[in-house]
Write a sequence for this structure.
């Protein structure tokens, strides 16, 4: 994961930016880009498609970055925030809040690798949880649709629940389609006709 | 000075005034509070610090608590609006090349400006706004939705950099809070064409916000904070106090700006272009009169609807505008407590007397530029 990770550093101070890039490169992340001027941020984010963006918490461009995140599917990207003073309670609170933004205690180069690895791992867990949640929601929706379709068949054709499902599945197989697609078509048709 | 110390976040804009005045002129101290005013570098940072408990209360853009209540943007935290701190106060300006093509459009004519912009625009109009979940952006979207062919590209620019953005050709136009519009005019890089109230005459701009659980856990502190800010807002809307307000806000620890840049917003005399005569804009920025501080639930509903919320979202948004606390904590000090908590938005074209606790509340006009009205009351839908 470390080799393929693309990192964008938003930092107006060239010395500080170089320091961060050196630390990232030394830590084994080769694909790092620094951006001093916010003016080209939208284009850079779109073209470079970073996996993670680093920005100082005190940087006013944070609002711009956040807007770009809305517009470019932020769930695919972690934003790590640097704060200049050590603040453990804030770091902990940010983590407990389960946000993709991760607050680290200043720009201690010796720690940047472990800090970023934690941020990324955390972000990936969140992303996975989100996609599992979405999958679970979808499964629930699908089941409701199939239940409705079964109900329609049971009423219209006077079938038992088991027979209704068998009919639904057999028709789907005959047509090379999924049961859920069949169910959706049936429910839509029933809605139209009712 | 002693008392309960509260960490209060704000962003350096003229309309942070109620918090600054509450502390500087002793309205907070009278309530046994000391406000530790902490300037924030960005709205996202302010929101995160509030959500994470590093700030007890904060000045927020009115759409921010609503956006959070319907699960948009940033942290999953419940933040409530205790009261509105200011109404209106934003300006819309054009770059000089674009302004030159629209010289004949009168200041404040939203309808003509939109029509003419649609005609001269060559591709999408790039408009700078301070934050996505801001009244600036909502008013902009609402306004341009009145012209089908109008294309907008929203560019988020921190307010202090708006003048640079328009000077460098990064944006063609901008919607920003004062003093940053006057700053752009002062530098000769932009011409102001209208104010926020030309699109909606009485829009809630900044609110006093705090976390829902903190409000629950600290009812007495919340009461004292609301009373201090309420008194400060009343003081700010008294004409003879404006010069002192301008002087206090200009100090380096607050805005750190020359007083002539702060004065236009507080006195409502906006200079649209370099060398032009100032235009007197009634209610350019209002802190208190006409029940300006009342967190109308119908305004939360309007914001939620503009943000794309469904019915459930609109209901949640209404609940985060705490009219209950406003009544509970301010009834004895308020002369104009509204009888209702919701109203039809956009229905008032003139000053109108309505029912209130003491029978003499006058509401200001709140019409939209296109004359539309919005009713979110369940019994009328």
């Amino acid at each position: 994961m470390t080799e393929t990770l693309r990192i964008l550093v938003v930092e107006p101070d060239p010395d500080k930016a170089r320091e961060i890039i050196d630390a990232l490169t030394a830590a084994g992340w080769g694909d790092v880009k620094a951006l001093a001027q916010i003016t080209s941020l939208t284009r850079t984010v779109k073209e470079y498609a970073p996996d993670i963006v680093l920005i100082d918490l005190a940087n006013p461009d944070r609002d711009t970055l956040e807007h770009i995140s809305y517009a470019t599917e932020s769930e695919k990207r972690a934003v790590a925030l640097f704060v200049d003073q050590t603040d453990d309670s804030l770091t902990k609170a940010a983590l407990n809040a389960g946000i993709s933004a991760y607050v680290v205690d200043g720009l201690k180069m010796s720690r940047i690798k472990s800090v970023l690895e934690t941020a990324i791992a955390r972000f990936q867990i969140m992303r996975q949880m989100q996609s599992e949640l979405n999958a679970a929601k979808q499964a629930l929706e699908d089941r409701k649709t199939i239940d409705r379709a079964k109900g329609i068949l049971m009423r219209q054709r006077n079938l038992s629940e088991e027979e209704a499902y068998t009919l639904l599945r057999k028709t789907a197989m005959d047509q090379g389609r999924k049961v859920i697609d069949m169910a959706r078509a049936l429910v839509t048709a029933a809605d139209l006709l009712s | 000075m002693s008392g309960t110390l509260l960490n209060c976040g704000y962003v350096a804009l003229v309309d942070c005034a109620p918090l600054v005045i509450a502390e500087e002129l002793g309205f907070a101290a009278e309530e046994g509070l000391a406000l530790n005013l902490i300037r924030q570098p960005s709205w996202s940072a302010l929101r995160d610090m509030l959500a994470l408990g590093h700030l007890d209360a904060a000045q927020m853009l009115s759409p921010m608590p609503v956006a959070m209540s319907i699960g948009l943007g940033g942290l999953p935290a419940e933040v409530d609006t205790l009261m509105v701190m200011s109404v209106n106060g934003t300006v819309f300006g054009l770059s000089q090349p674009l302004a030159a093509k629209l010289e004949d459009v009168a200041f404040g004519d939203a309808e003509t400006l939109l029509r003419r912009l649609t005609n001269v625009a060559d591709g999408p109009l790039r408009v700078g706004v301070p934050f996505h979940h801001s009244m600036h952006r909502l008013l902009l979207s609402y306004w341009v939705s009145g012209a089908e062919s109008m294309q907008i590209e929203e560019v988020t620019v921190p307010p202090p950099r708006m003048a640079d953005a328009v000077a460098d050709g990064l944006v063609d136009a901008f919607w920003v809070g004062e003093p940053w519009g006057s700053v752009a005019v002062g530098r000769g890089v932009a011409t102001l064409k209208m104010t926020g109230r030309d699109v909606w005459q009485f829009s809630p701009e900044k609110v006093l916000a705090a976390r829902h659980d903190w409000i629950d856990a600290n009812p007495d502190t919340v009461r004292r904070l609301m009373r201090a800010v309420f008194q400060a807002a009343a003081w700010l809307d008294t004409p003879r106090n404006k010069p002192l307000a301008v002087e206090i806000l200009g100090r380096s620890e607050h805005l750190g700006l020359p007083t002539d840049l702060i004065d236009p917003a507080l006195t409502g005399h906006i200079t649209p272009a370099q060398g032009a005569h100032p235009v007197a804009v009634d209610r350019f920025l209002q802190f208190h009169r006409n029940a300006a501080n009342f967190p109308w639930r119908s305004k939360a509903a309007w914001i939620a609807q503009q943000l794309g919320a469904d019915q459930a979202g609109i209901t949640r948004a209404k609940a985060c505008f705490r009219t209950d606390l406003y009544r509970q904590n301010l009834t004895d000090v308020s002369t104009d407590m509204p009888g209702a908590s919701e109203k039809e938005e956009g229905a008032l074209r003139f000053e109108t007397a309505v029912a209130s606790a003491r029978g003499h509340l006058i509401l200001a006009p709140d019409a939209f530029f296109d004359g539309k009205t919005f009713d979110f009351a369940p019994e009328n839908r």
